[in-house]
């Protein structure tokens, strides 16, 4: 049993996702019930007083696995020796904004953080980006960290994957535990493609249980617009579900995904499935010991091809925009 504490850095720690995420990490939901964690929390200077309050609450929970907590507004201090960096801090989307509006606002944050990770993080660091626009923020951080292997960077599409699993389970009147082999392709945005072509429900192909019409007219639009629907209903973007998905993503990355299943993650493309190499795009992946592999050999229908291509085209335009801004 390895009881050496793992150093986990979290950015945007005083935000709404942070308020859910930190307590679950400290409780052991990330690395399991035996592995202590050291939390290193990054915030902008104005948010440090609020973050001090969150740290008091973390202490008051008396979590046995929480080895210690440090907070700072300097990325180099916070990322020093980090083995896992969860990049959550960014400006969230307000009502009426598209993710593309966030590119410029958030680009500067991720260039600086990429450089800091490059210089001071642990040699073996894994970097997970939740802050939106997550795929392109991950691309910016990765390109600004030339000494870190590109496979160490990933971005969150697990919330979309989880939303798709929950919706399919409800439609087929089963439990999410019986849903397998869903794929989310492309960007974490309205163009994402949640794909049921290979999905199984309780051992049966999902497409034997639901109609094509439901997939195209209800399932895909509902999953891809779910973030906007939550934002509209709550008046704030999803937080507890985003924290839970961040944990699911990072836990699967570090400890391996569910046996016989795969998950969805945005990773640096190696050209698989015709996605241009270098783009951070979501794929079906299996994970083990901090590494991932794209699930290979899936048959891609004409419909899937067009949906994947549309989302990848959006990622290419985001990449071109940040290139023009000099961020990569
Ligand atoms: P929030 O506004 O409540 O918190 C963001 C925090 O980041 C704030 O406390 C802010 O001070 C901090 N921050 C800003 N700039 C920073 C910097 N340079 N360094 C460190 N911290 C900084 O937002 P939230 O609801 O917690 O959401 C955080 C991000 O996650 C947003 O970009 C949101 O759009 C995104 N999000 C992504 C997904 C996903 O599935 N990928 C889901 C939900 C939310
Ligand atoms: C989500 O999917 O809930 C987040 O990305 C928030 C948003 O802005 O849609």
From TrEMBL:
Lineage of the species this protein comes from? Bacteria, Bacillati, Actinomycetota, Actinomycetes, Micrococcales
At the top of the EC hierarchy, this enzyme's class is oxidoreductase
Ligand binding (NAD(+)) = 12-18, 106, 113, 130-132
Point out the coiled-coil segments of this chain: none
Q: Name one GO molecular function term.
A: L-malate dehydrogenase (NAD+) activity
Q: What is the protein named?
A: Malate dehydrogenase
Keyword presence, Oxidoreductase: yes
What is annotated as the active site? 188 (proton acceptor)
EC number(s)?
Answer: 1.1.1.37
Binding-site residues for substrate, renumbered to this chain: 93, 99, 132, 163
Q: Which domain of life is it from?
A: Bacteria
